[in-house]
Amino acid sequence: MLRIALQSKGRLNEKSLELLRESGISIEENSRRLLSKSSNFPMEVLYLRDDDIPQTVSCGIADLGIVGFNEVMERNYSVEVLKHLEFGKCRLSLAVPKYLDYAGPEFFNGKKVATSYPGILKSYFKEKGISCEIREIAGSVEISPSIGLADGIFDIVSSGGTLVQNGLAEVEVVMESDAVLIAAPGLDEEKRQIAETLMSRFTSVLRSRGKKYILVNVPNEKIDEALQIIPSMKSPTLLPLADKGWSAIHAVVDESEVWDKADRLKKIGAEDIVVLSMEKLII
Ligand code: PRT
Ligand code: ZN
Asked: What average pLDDT does this structure show over 215-234?
């Protein structure tokens, strides 16, 4: 039995549960419970605030956790990052009031910066040789310059809307982040095997996201050209049609490229292009 720590509520909660669901793992959903078991996988879920997840995993109270990479870097507990999960994407950036002239990181020499991520910021300034006073605050970091608490801020940015609303300009991206799967150091063999099964399910789910399955009929003399347009992961499936002289190609393509590829296939004489959603891509 493996215990995984997930954010109890907030930005990563729903996406983390969705990833488990898509990986075929059923969890009893009862938001008031701290711990719930899976009915079909040897795992239980411990719901925590995201700030507490790295420490809980590091000391082995939970074996695994899903948390923002930013929290892992900030807390600096000893945990193993097993996998980047590609949701909860954001960046940690320095921002200053937009009317200021900003010429580079030296701007921050002798200045004050407000943040909830003092650890990451301290390392960044140290590496750049900049001496800056870091003011740690728990929330509403973006209002600090306007109330005179700091000259600039260091905070999570996603769309950039919050910075714009507060008259701030993003001047340095210090790190990129997404949700990561972390593990306690030294899991025993049984737990490691469950973790590996889980990781391989996550990999399949993540691979199938943004992919479509395409079926297309092409005249045999155009097969080579069609295969240039839709190369597949290994090799596309090629099947003869009852109508001699034609074949069907099946392949997996990125969703963003479907229309472009369909247009190009039509131009070389392909017909009956069918595009299907990818449920799973298990490799
Ligand atoms: O209650 P708990 O402590 O568990 O949650 P929390 O409030 O500390 O965290 P939460 O749920 O806000 O965020 C959890 C994780 O989501 C973060 O640690 C990041 O890894 C990730 N994430 C992704 C974000 C954002 N995007 C995000 N936009 N976390 C916070 N924000 C905030 C940011 O602080 C700023 O106030 O959104 C604002 C900026 O957004 P834009 O779109 O206006 O740029
Ligand atoms: Zn938090």
From this structure: 89
